[in-house]
Amino acid sequence: MQCPICKSKQVGKVGADQYYCWSCFIEFTARSGEVFEIEEDGSLVALDNGKGYF
Predict the structure, then answer these.
(1) Residues facing residue 13 across a β-bridge
(2) pLDDT more than 90, % of the chain
(3) Are 13 and 2 spatial neighbours (Cβ–Cβ below 8 Å)?
(4) Which pLDDT belongs to residue 20?
(5) What distance separates the 2 farthest-apart alpha carbons in the chain?
(6) Residue 38 pairs with which residues in a beta bridge?
(7) pTM for this one?
(8) Residue 52 clears pLDDT 90, i.e. is over it
(9) Banded pLDDT at 24 (limits 50, 70, 90)
(10) What sign does the dihedral 4-37-48-46 (CA atoms) show?
């Protein structure tokens, strides 16, 4: 698996179809192409660019 943002391969699986990039600190889903920023309280905020990253 490769990060859709920074292309790093330092990615870990955190849930069913959910991954975390240790290089740019984002969480993403492989199927839908959604990318999330993780807030200080642990909540996820979708980064919306109008299209999926995959």
Answers:
(1) 19
(2) 76
(3) no
(4) 97
(5) 27
(6) 44
(7) 0.81
(8) no
(9) very high
(10) positive
Q: Token pair of 12, please?
A: 């870990």
Cα 45 from chain centre? 11
More confident residue, 8 or 47: 8
Among candidate residues 34, 37, 36, the one with its CA nearest the CA of residue 54? 34
Q: In what order do the strands lie in the sheet with 11-15?
A: 11-15, 18-21, 26-29, 35-38, 44-46
User: In terms of Cα–Cα distance, which of 13, 53, 48, 5 is closest to 31?
Assistant: 53
Q: DSSP letters along 7-25, please?
A: --S-EEEEETTEEEETTT-
Number of separate domains in the chain = 1
* Residue-number span of the structural domain to which 23 is assigned: 1-54
